[in-house]
Amino acid sequence: MFKKQKFLGLVIMVISFTFIFAHLPTSEAHILIIADSNNYNEAKTISYSLKSRGYPVLELYKENATAKKIVKGMYNADAIIYAGHGGYQSGNYVTGGTAKPPFALVGYDTFIWGIGDKMRIGWSGNLFKPPVKKYIPVILLHTCLSTGYVGSTEVRNPTETIYYFSRMFRGTGANYYATAWNGGEIIYDFLNGATSFANANQKNYEVIKKSTTYNGTYIWRNDHGHSAFVGNWSAKFPSVSQTTKYNDSAAESWYKTYVLNIKPDLVVTNAYKSGNYLCITIKNQGKATSGACYTRAYYGSYCKDIYTYGLAPGTSKSYAVSFTYAHGTVKTDYQSKILELSESNNIKTF
After folding, report:
1. Could you give the C-alpha distances from 19 to 80, 90, 99, 144, 299, in angstroms and in order?
2. Is the pLDDT of residue 9 over 60?
3. Are the C-beta atoms of 266 and 282 separated by less than 8 Å?
4. Which residues contact 93 (CB under 8 A, 6 or more apart)?
5. 3-state secondary structure (DSSP) of residue 297
6. Of 330, 333, 317, 319, which Cα lies nearest the Cα of 265?
C-alpha cells in the first residue's frame, strides 16, 4: 500500500539529472501535471481521468520539461499536481537527521527552490512568487521531504520541514496537500464528488486527524503519518468550467519580467532652466521597453505634469515646459505606473 518516497541527494558541485519530462505545449489549459520517470504511469492515469471528465490538462513529462517550462506552466494555473523528487542543499536525511530549508522541486536541468514564500530557479536566480491563481490546490505525490520523510525514513523535524516546503506555494494562498500513498487518491476523491479537502480527507486511506502549530501556521499531519495538509480545509478542486486556457506569450512575458528581471528603468538625465522653460531628458536605461507615463516637475505646491512617451531600451527623449521657479524637482513616472528595475532613481533636482 505504501509507496516509498523517492530520495534525491543533492550534490552542490555536481548536478546530474535522469528525469524524463515532456514538451510544454504552447496552448493548453491549466491543470498542470508534472512527473518524473518513476511516477510517469501514475501521472498519466491521473491525467487520463481528468481529461475523460472534460479537464484540459497541461502535461509535463520527459526531458524537455526544464525548470523554466515548469515555472511558465504555473502561470495562471488552476491546480498543480507534482509527482517527482524533492531536493535540498545540504545535510543527509536518509538516517533521520534534522532537515533544513531551502527545499526544492526538480526540473530536468535544475532545481526550483522555495526561498521563504517565493521561488528561485537554480543557485543564484531572482526571487519570484509562483504565478498561479490564488487559493489553488497544489498536490505533491511521493516528493521527498514534502511529508516529513526521505524515502521511508522520517526526519527529526517533520512539522518544521512541511512548513518550509509548503511556503513556496502558501505565499499565494495555495492549499498544499502532500502524500506518499499510491494512486493520488485525493484527486479521485474530488473527481468522484468530494466537496472540499475536508470531505476528501475523510475518504482517504489515511485520514489526517492531527495538527501542530508552527510559526502560527497549522500543519496537519498524523504522528508518523505519510500525508500532510497546510491550508483551508473548505477549499475545493476547480470544476471544469473554472479552468482557463494557458497563454504561452503572457507566460513568457511574465517570465522575462519577474524571473529574468528584464524591466525598463527610467531616469532623469538632465533638468535645467532655459529662460522661462524647464528642459528635461528622460532615459530608459533598462532592458525592456517602457510604457507611457507622466513626469512631474514641482516646487512646493506648484507643479507641471508632462506626458512622457514610452521608450525603447537605451533611448532618451527631451521635453521643455514653462516653469515659474528657478529651482525644483523632477520625478519621472511619478504615479508609479511602470514596473521598473529600480523605483528609487526617478528623481532629479535642478
Report:
1. 19, 21, 24, 15, 62
2. no
3. yes
4. 99, 145, 150, 153, 155
5. strand
6. 333
Residues in the chain: 350
Please report the beta strands in 19-88, taking only residues with DSSP state E, as ranges in sequence order: 31-35, 57-60, 79-83, 86-88
pLDDT tier, 208 (very low <50, low <70, confident <90, very high otherwise): very high
Any idea which residue has 514610452 for its cell?
310
* Domains of the chain, first to last: 31-258 (no CATH), 263-349 (2.60.40.10)
CA 193, 199, 201, 205: dihedral to nearest 10 degrees? -60
Q: Is pLDDT of 19 > 50?
A: no
Specify the range with the lowest mean pLDDT, choosing from 29-33, 99-103, 202-206, 261-265: 29-33
Give, for 161, the enclosing helix (H) or strand (E).
helix 158-170
Which three cell numbers, joined as nine digits, stand for 122?
537554480
